Every structure is written in C-alpha cells, then in structure tokens.
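debug: dumping io for the single-chain case to check the tokenizer round-trip. Nothing else runs in this session.
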Amino acid sequence: QVQLVESGGGLVQAGGSLRLSCAASGRTFSGKAMGWFRQAPGKEREFVATTSWIGGHRYSAALADSVKGRFTVSRDDVKNTLSLQMNSLKPEDTAVYYCAISMNPRVDTDPRGYDYWGQGTQVTVSS
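debug: decoded output
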C-alpha cells in the first residue's frame, strides 16, 4: 500500500524559510512524477511544484509562477523522498501542503493527474 507522509510544516514569520519533506513507501517511485500542491481555506487545491521523469535518473522540475525564485523542489529516489525548500515566505503562502505521486512519468499541473496523496502539513506565515 502506498503511503505518503509529509513533515516540516509550522509557523514562520514573513521572509522566513521552511523545508517540507515527503516520505514515500509501499513501492519504488523511481520514474514516476511527484509533486507538491497546497490548499488554503476556502480555496481550491493548487499546484506548487512537480518533478517529471525525463530518462535515466534525471527529472525536470516545474514550479508555479507564484513561487518561482523562492521555492525549490528536489527528490531522492534512493530514499524515496520529495522535498520542498521554501524561502522568502509570504502570508499568502499559508496553506496545507500536500505531497502527491503519479503512476505516470510526467504530469502537468492538474491534481487529477496524481494517484496518491499524503495527509498534508500546515504552513502558516505570519505578517
């Protein structure tokens, strides 16, 4: 059974940093797309970042325009982990952040393209 467990969320002041981690278990995820989404109260779940397989051990990363230059996504297929380094955080980044995995190697920004989801971790940025 596939399990995704996020960690690293918390309360931080604007301008601060957090690093989210997602530990995946249940199968090998090498060659599968993995990504981060977030959902703020009263809003739809939105794309944050994704890593798509491009061959061998290589992945391409894509970030939402709202986080480019501030967030970095990375993965470790040996450890089955996905990370999101978040710098220069803003109050509008406040949301529950979810890790997701697709059984396809490449997925776009649509959350419906992902097959498994974690329970989420809360990120709160105070002004």
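debug: round-trip ok. The CA atoms of residues 102 and 114 lie 4 Å apart.
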